[in-house]
Amino acid sequence: MIDFHNHIIPNVDDGSKNIRMSIRMIKNAAEMGITKIVSTTHYNHPTMKERFPNFDNINSELDQLKKEMISNKLTIEIVSSAEVYFNEDIINFYNNDSIIIGKKYMLIEFDFNLLPKNYERILFELQLKGITPIIAHPERYTFVQKDYSIINEWINRDYILQLSCGSIFDQFGSSALYSAKKIIKNGHFHLVGSDAHNDSNRNFCLKPFLNFLKKNGGENNVDILMKNANKLYNKNKLDKCSPLIKKSIFNFSFFGGKKTG
């Protein structure tokens, strides 16, 4: 299994705080059967100490982490990439191999409360340059929670949508939970990632998410998600998941939450 979207490299953003935490997180990932981790360090984010992280520093931290993994007999492969915060500057990153995934995709994060007015133009320019936008955790944006038609528009524009596994387990509140279930039921997503940040409340959770899909009639989607993670690196077109037949995913009592939004 490949976990796409996480912050496992220590000391480079708001993810893992130190190498010991990273090792604990990787051990947890290994127990879930994850064999490859795509680390997506925050890039261009206004709240990070360094607006533009130094990739030499990131690679140095990754090298130290890999050495510690050998000492702990951990064989998971880690690939370094980025989660890019949206603004007009992102059009200049289209040929940066440290940011672009599989020479074709860019993982993009919006402000959680505000959808920029000019985003369609910027993302279209990226597409013209051969870069397909991957929208990170769409279920967590308040503007999506209030207006689901945005999801339909993104699908029609050929954006890739990537859910956070933790949203299903109520890590980000009931509105994100409800939006995630609606996206899953409609099959409006292509990728999932743990978005792991630490070894406690934001750890790897890919296996529980896939088990959730299986229990709710999404066995075919599990296969699609596994294949899509590999297709990222082979420059192949990703498949959209299929709508679920079962409606049990809207039974919120299982999670101890209430339907909102």
- Going across the biggest sheet, name each strand in turn: 1-2-3-4-5-6-7
Strand content: 5-15%
CATH superfamily: Metal-dependent hydrolases
Structure classification: alpha/beta
Our Rg estimate from Cα atoms comes to 17 Å
Total separate domains: 1
Q: Which oligomerization state do the chains in this entry correspond to?
A: single chain
What is the overall pLDDT average? 92
- Report the count of strand segments: 7
SSE sequence, one letter per element: EHEHEEHEHHEHHEHH
Q: Which architecture per CATH?
A: Alpha-Beta Barrel
Sheet with the most strands? 7 strands, parallel
**Treating each run of at least 4 consecutive H or I residues as one helix, how many helices?**
9
CATH level 3 topology: TIM Barrel
Helix content: 25-40%
Shape summary: globular
Q: What is the name of the CATH class?
A: Alpha Beta
* Low-pLDDT windows of residues: 252-261
Measure the end-to-end span: 33 Å
